[in-house]
Specification:
By secondary structure, this protein is an alpha+beta fold. It has helices at residues 2-14, 32-42, 56-68, 74-85, 96-104, 107-117, 120-123, 128-131, 185-191, 205-212, 219-222, 259-263, 373-379, 384-387; strands spanning 134-137, 151-153, 158-161, 172-175, 194-195, 201-203, 227-229, 244-246, 264-271, 274-281, 295-303, 309-322, 336-340, 348-354, 361-369, 389-398. Strand 11 (295-303) and strand 12 (309-322) form a beta hairpin. Keywords: Signal. It comes from Sulfurovum zhangzhouensis.
């Protein structure tokens, strides 16, 4: 019996051992002194909130997956999803022996797993050391996005970027091609495509991009176009920092940018009793894209000459997912899609509405939700950030 517990104890320790991130590089706080503006913009991004402790939708989705599949344990799913959500996690997989130890309630193993999943670096999200320590990228699109398994990280203490003459007193610097071009290779490490166990594509932003034949990349939209600024406040010899052509590190989303206004044109017209909204998608991927429960809502209210409301209508651009029983679910558990009405990349689409009798004018809103209301309730999402309807365009249009 003593030998049994000795073996269990040894497994509990060795099964989780891996290289730790040096405290000097574990959070963006240590980068602020030289990269204050970049760090400030990054802090507004979803990259800074990729850890389950800061992302209610992510956390509730993980818990939902475990509730629906009794063969899974929560820590196992957290580690699997960390391949992209937290690529510097020090553990790549939860093996059967790990599950066995956790299910047995071995306290040492539970504490160590909790530590691995909640390090400062993990909680800091997709931070500086995640992207700028990537030395090589080996993306096999046939396998889709594999996060940390697609890259080779460099020596800790070396930061890679687009410049061949960058100098820092705090770390080594080196130039790498994946930072120099508009190619989306670095982004596709996590944002190309991901199938679930049924072979259903959960995320396919990169595949959608490839389908358009675009060469625009992701950076102009989700960071910014290049502008003259400073990549670093540091300068050798006490002089002024060197001006660079840089981009904002905001990783634009619906909450921290005008990306929907900038890349979706909305026009209205009337024809033979129809009110028509025309959407032109200027981006090289479908809208909405990314997490599969997002939706775009076109809502129209109709009023007569006395401002009395005489009707309303709406169309939703979305994907709906069902499990093997035909019940609505999240993409990660879906056996198939029940519908997909999204606007494809570089596409233009007319959406027609019947004008009610007596209508003199219409008011329309073009809005975006990060998860549809039904599934938000099903998952138990409570964070207002995910429940909010983000309105990007509102107009009043005379119909006569």
């Amino acid at each position: 019996m003593k030998l049994f517990w000795a073996v269990i104890s040894l497994l509990a320790i060795t099964s989780l051992q891996a290289e730790e991130i040096n405290k000097k590089y574990e959070t963006n706080e240590n980068c602020n002194a030289c990269h204050m503006e970049i760090s400030k913009r990054w802090a507004t991004s979803r990259h800074s909130n990729s850890h389950f402790s800061k992302n209610d939708l992510f956390k509730k989705s993980l818990e939902f997956m475990v509730r629906k599949n009794p063969t899974l344990i929560l820590d196992e799913v957290k580690v699997e999803c960390a391949q992209c959500h937290n690529p510097r996690i020090t553990k790549k997989t939860v093996e059967d022996k790990d599950k066995y130890l956790l299910l047995m309630g071995i306290e040492e193993n539970k504490k160590e797993m909790d530590r691995v999943l909640n390090t400062k670096n993990m909680q800091n999200g997709i931070n500086c050391v995640v992207c700028h320590n990537i030395d090589e990228i080996h993306l096999d699109k046939s396998k889709g996005s594999q996060g940390m398994n697609t890259v080779k990280f460099g020596e800790q203490g070396t930061m890679f970027g687009p410049f061949d003459d960058a100098v820092s007193p705090y770390h080594k610097t080196a130039q790498r091609a994946h930072f120099m071009t508009d190619e989306p290779t670095l982004c596709f490490v996590c944002h190309y495509s991901t199938p679930n166990k049924h072979g259903v594509e959960v995320y396919a932003t990169g595949k959608e991009y490839d389908a358009t034949g675009s060469n625009e990349g992701c950076k102009d939209c989700h960071m910014s176009e290049k502008y003259e600024g400073f990549a670093s406040n540091y300068s050798q010899g006490g002089g002024k920092p060197k001006p660079r052509m840089v981009r904002e590190h905001r990783f634009a989303s619906v909450d921290n940018s005008n990306i929907m206004i900038n890349y979706i044109d909305v026009k209205s017209s009337t024809k033979r009793g129809k009110f028509i909204l025309t959407l032109k998608n200027k981006s090289p991927h479908a809208i909405p894209t990314g997490y599969g429960l997002r939706e775009i809502i076109l809502h129209v209210d109709y009023f007569d000459k006395t401002d009395k409301k005489v009707g309303e209508d709406r169309k939703v651009l979305e994907t709906r997912w069902v499990d093997a029983k035909g019940e609505e679910t999240i993409p990660h558990l879906a056996a198939s899609k029940s519908k997909d009405t999204r606007l494809q990349g570089k596409a233009t689409q007319d959406y027609e509405f019947d004008v009610p009798q007596g209508a003199d004018y219409a008011k329309y809103t073009f809005s975006y939700r990060l998860i549809n209301e039904k599934m938000a309730k099903e998952l138990g999402v409570t964070d207002p950030f995910f429940l909010k309807e983000y309105i990007f365009s509102e107009r009043r249009i005379h119909l006569n």
